[in-house]
C-alpha cells in the first residue's frame, strides 16, 4: 500500500503523486494520459489505459525446448504457459519428430489453442481466446452437468457394469479442458481489475470459484478411477457398493443445489453426511476383502470429501 498526500493545484483540483515503480512498470512518461474510474463513493481506480475494443491487447510469447525432457514435464510446461495466458507458445527441439504426435494431442487439450505453424523442429500454437467472452458461471455449470451425468451413470449401472468407460473418459477430458480454461481466466482476473469487472466477478469470489472448479475436476477424475476399478470387481461385491454410490450421487445433487441457491443449511447437511458415508465404506473392508474393492471404497471416500469441499465454498460465502 502506498500513502500519498493531496496537494492543492488550483481552485477546483488537487494533485497526487504516483509511485515510480508503477509508472515504470506501465511504461508511462510525462504527457501520457492515465484514466480515473470511480468504482464507489470511496474507491477511485487509476489505470494506464481504457478498456476499449480498440485498445491493443498485450501479446505474451513463450518458447519451450523439449530436448532431454519427459513427456509429462513437457505437458506441465505447456499447461503452465496456457494458464499464465501466453498468446503464442513455440515448442522446439531436435527430438520433436519423436514426440510430435503426443505434443499435438497435448495442445488440443486446451480450449481455443490452435496450431498455426509446424516444421520438422518446431510447433507454434496460437491462442484464439477472448477471455471477456467467457462466463465463469456458465463454465462451472457445464462442469457440473458433466460430473452429474458421470456420477449418475456409475451409480445406476455399476452392479451390471452397464456404464460405458470410454464415454466416462471423454467426459473427464471435457471437464479437464474447462478446468484449465477457468484457471486461466480466474488467474488473469486476479491481476486485471477491469477483466474481473467485465466477467462480473467480485475479487473476493475469484479464489472460491477456482477452488470449486478444482474440486469438480478432481471429482471427475475420481469417478473415472471408480469406473476403472469397478470393472475388475465381481457382481456380488458390486451389489454391496451400489447403495453407497447411490448415496454419493445424492450427496452431489444436494451440494450443487445448495451452491446454486446459496442454501447454507443444505450445504451443512451435505458436509455432515461425509462422516457417515466414510464409515459405510470402511465397513465394507475386512481382512479378506479383494484389493479392487478396497480401492473402490477409497475412491468413494475421496469423492465424498471432494463434495464436502464444495459444501465448504457455500458455507464460507459472505
Task: List the topology elements.
Blueprint: E1 7-8, E2 14-15, H1 20-25, E3 35-40, E4 43-47, E5 61-65, H2 71-83, E6 88-92, H3 96-108, E7 113-118, E8 122-127, H4 136-157, H5 165-191, H6 193-198, H7 206-230, H8 235-261, H9 264-283, H10 291-315
Parallel strand pairs: 5-6
Antiparallel strand pairs: 1-2, 3-4, 6-8, 7-8
Helix pairs in contact: 2-3, 4-5, 4-7, 4-8, 5-7, 7-10, 8-9, 8-10, 9-10
Supply the key terms.
single chain; 318 residues; Methane Monooxygenase Hydroxylase, Chain G, domain 1; 4-stranded mixed β-sheet; flat
Can you give a write-up of this model?
This protein is α+β, with helices and mostly antiparallel strands and 318 residues long. The chain folds into 3 domains: 7-47; 61-127; 132-315, Methane Monooxygenase Hydroxylase, Chain G, domain 1 (Up-down Bundle), CATH 1.20.58.220. The protein has helices at 20-25, 71-83, 96-108, 136-157, 165-191, 193-198, 206-230, 235-261, 264-283, 291-315, and strands at residues 7-8, 14-15, 35-40, 43-47, 61-65, 88-92, 113-118, 122-127. The strands form 3 sheets. A 4-stranded mixed beta sheet has the order 5-6-8-7, with helices on one face. A two-stranded antiparallel ribbon has the order 1-2. A two-stranded antiparallel ribbon has the order 3-4. Strand 3 (35-40) and strand 4 form a beta hairpin. It starts with 6 loop residues before the first strand and ends with a helix.
Amino acid at each position: 500500500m502506498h500513502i500519498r498526500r493531496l496537494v492543492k493545484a488550483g481552485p477546483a483540483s488537487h494533485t497526487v503523486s504516483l509511485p515510480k515503480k508503477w509508472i515504470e512498470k506501465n511504461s508511462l512518461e510525462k504527457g501520457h494520459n492515465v484514466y480515473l474510474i470511480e468504482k464507489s463513493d470511496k474507491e477511485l481506480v487509476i489505470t494506464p489505459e481504457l478498456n476499449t475494443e480498440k485498445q491493443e491487447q498485450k501479446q505474451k510469447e513463450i518458447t519451450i525446448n523439449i530436448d532431454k525432457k519427459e513427456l509429462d514435464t513437457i505437458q506441465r510446461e505447456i499447461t503452465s504457459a496456457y494458464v499464465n495466458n501466453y498468446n503464442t507458445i513455440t515448442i522446439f527441439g531436435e527430438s520433436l519428430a519423436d514426440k510430435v504426435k503426443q505434443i499435438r494431442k497435448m495442445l488440443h487439450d486446451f480450449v481455443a489453442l490452435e496450431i498455426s505453424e509446424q516444421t520438422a523442429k518446431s510447433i507454434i500454437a496460437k491462442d484464439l481466446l477472448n477471455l471477456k467472452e467467457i462466463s465463469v458461471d456458465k463454465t462451472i455449470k457445464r462442469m457440473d452437468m458433466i460430473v452429474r451425468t458421470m456420477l449418475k451413470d456409475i451409480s445406476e449401472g455399476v452392479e451390471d457394469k452397464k456404464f460405458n468407460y470410454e464415454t466416462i473418459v471423454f467426459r473427464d477430458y471435457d471437464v479437464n479442458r474447462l478446468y484449465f480454461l477457468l484457471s486461466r481466466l480466474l488467474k488473469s482476473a486476479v491481476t486485471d481489475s477491469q477483466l474481473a469487472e467485465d466477467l462480473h466477478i467480485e475479487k473476493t469470489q475469484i479464489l472460491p470459484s477456482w477452488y470449486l472448479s478444482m474440486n469438480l475436476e478432481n471429482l471427475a477424475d475420481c469417478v473415472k478411477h471408480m469406473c476403472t476399478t469397478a470393472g475388475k470387481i465381481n457382481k456380488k461385491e458390486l451389489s454391496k457398493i451400489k447403495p453407497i454410490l447411490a448415496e454419493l450421487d445424492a450427496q452431489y445433487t444436494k451440494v450443487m443445489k445448495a451452491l446454486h441457491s446459496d442454501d447454507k443449511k443444505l450445504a451443512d447437511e451435505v458436509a455432515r453426511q461425509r462422516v457417515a458415508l466414510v464409515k459405510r465404506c470402511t465397513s465394507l473392508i475386512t481382512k479378506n476383502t479383494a484389493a479392487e474393492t478396497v480401492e473402490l471404497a477409497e475412491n468413494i471416500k475421496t469423492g465424498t470429501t471432494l463434495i464436502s469441499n464444495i459444501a465448504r465454498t457455500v458455507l464460507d460465502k459472505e
